[in-house]
Specification:
Number of domains: 2
Radius of gyration: 17 Å
Shape: globular
CATH architecture of the largest domain: 3-Layer(aba) Sandwich
Mean pLDDT: 79
Strand content: 5-15%
Number of helices: 10
Length: about 230
Amino acid sequence: MKKVRILVAEDHAYVREGTRRVLEQGPDFEVVGEAGDGVEAVALAEELKPDVALLDIVMPRMNGIEATQRIKALSPDTTVLILSAYDDDQFVFSLLEAGAAGYLLKSVHSRELVAAIRSVREGESVLHPVIARKLLGRLVPGAGKPEPRERVGGLSEREREVLVLANRGLSNKEIATELHISIRTVQAHFTNVFKKLRVGSRTEAVLRGLREGWLSLEEVSREDTKVCGA
């Protein structure tokens, strides 16, 4: 079984060590590097090309926002997942726009963190419920009505359906069941959506869809929003 290679960036050594111990309990995880600041995180990401970079926001020498931008530029295939004590709006939206695929608060249980890493590696959105509510709350005023479907970013009807279901928090497996297609087909649809919208994750795609009015909040049930696909 191919292991998920993870880089952990956290300036507090005891927190970093604790996170590593939690992750190493997963038989499919391998922590390939640890960074104590943002500059070191970027350098290690460029060198090691990890599958997932688990970053804090407030770090010495370079914050998580800039580190996320640089990591995505230097190692596009690396998925960035934020694990932070802060849920400030400025941090949340700046990090998601910088290319982070998910945002969790440090209050999550270890099993939720493990599930979240597996989910983002599969291209699924991972947002702590508090973060998800903030996101939807901020997008409500300007969401408006969806554009006519032929104008929705060049997306096909099926691609739009997949994005709507992703917006509701469904995992790839759940989307496949809902649409009566294979998981591989769902993944192919997301690849096309990412390419057409010029984004790198489900989170970015949903953000853009809501911001541009391509998706309606009437199509989203707040109760359906999940931390991950588990």
